[in-house]
Here is the input.
Amino acid sequence: MATVSTTSKTSMQKFLDVVERVGNMVPHPVIIFLILMAIVIVLSAVLGAFGAGVHCERINAESQ
Here is the structure.
C-alpha cells in the first residue's frame, strides 16, 4: 500500500509548481512563431497604409 506524505511543500516547491503550470499552458514554439509572423505582416500593412517607410542613406565611395 502506498503511503501519502502529509508534509507541506516548501516555498521553492510551490514556485516550481506554478512555473510548471504556466509552462504547460504555453503553446508550441511553431505556433508562437506563426503568430509573431502574422503580427509583423499585419503591422507592416497598417503602417504602410499610413505612409510609414524606411529610408537608407549609403555612402558612395566614388564621390570621396
About this structure: DSSP finds two helices and no strands in the chain. The mean pLDDT is 89. Residues 27-52 form one domain. Residues 27 and 55 are 37 Å apart (CA to CA).
